[in-house]
């Protein structure tokens, strides 16, 4: 079955081009012209991926991300105009997995789409449960638990936390984390790590401002300490 993609953008030209281009690559594409209708279509269409513009009237792309994240882990790519750096960070903080800056080339967008949809085949996924200290990693259920309590994570948050747990008590550099989780084109996108590490700390740390499990190694990277 083709992967289902929902595109939400108030610019008709954008949705028309994306529907035609993504459809030519055998994706099943539906479009919406605003955030509210996009969320309604999301519930009916049950897409594998959402692509949403950030700057839309009535309901912004950030609000769309927040609404989806309340009940779904579906990957989200946001589209933003150049120079909206703080808005991009806010979108990542709201649950987006990636962003593409307008104007963009279809080759770049398609690469981001493939990366967001890429999943290890189910039969090849690790089934072992990793338990270290207070942390438990369940690959088959894609769940992280802290002191016996399951924590709701987005797909990218889970990938990042799983990698940290699997390499616990080791210093993992910013570059290595970015390459592993987002790919080689992201080695300079340190705002990704800042936002996602911040989100993880809010979800797993007893006191996010004084992290126990995800420790910053200044100017180098991060270390997962499962038994603080």
Explain the overall architecture.
A 5-stranded parallel sheet has the order 2-1-3-4-5, with helices on both faces. The chain is an alpha/beta fold. The protein contains 8 helices and 12 strands. Mean pLDDT is 89; it is low at 120-125. Strand 8 and strand 9 form a beta hairpin.
SSE layout:
Layout lengths: L3 E5 L3 H13 L3 E5 L2 H11 L3 E5 L7 H9 L6 E6 L3 H9 L4 E5 L3 H12 L11 E4 L2 E4 L4 E4 L2 E3 L3 H12 L4 E3 H9 L7 H15 L9 E4 L3 E4 L4
Parallel strand pairs: 1-2, 1-3, 3-4, 4-5
Antiparallel strand pairs: 6-7, 7-8, 8-9, 10-12, 11-12
Helix pairs in contact: 2-3, 6-8
Query: Largest sheet, order of strands side by side?
Result: 2-1-3-4-5
* Quaternary structure of the protein: single chain
Largest sheet: 5 strands, parallel
Morphology call: globular
> Quick check: average pLDDT?
89
DSSP helix count?
8
Could you list the spans in which at least 5 consecutive residues all have pLDDT below 50? 120-125
Helix percent reads: 25-40%
Number of strands: 12
Q: Determine the strand fraction and express it as a percent band.
A: 15-25%
> Using only CA atoms, what is the Rg?
18 Å
| Element order: H for helix, E for strand | EHEHEHEHEHEEEEHEHHEE
Structural class: alpha/beta
Q: End-to-end span in angstroms? A: 46 Å
List keywords for this structure.
12 strands, globular, alpha/beta, 228 residues, 5-stranded parallel beta sheet, single chain
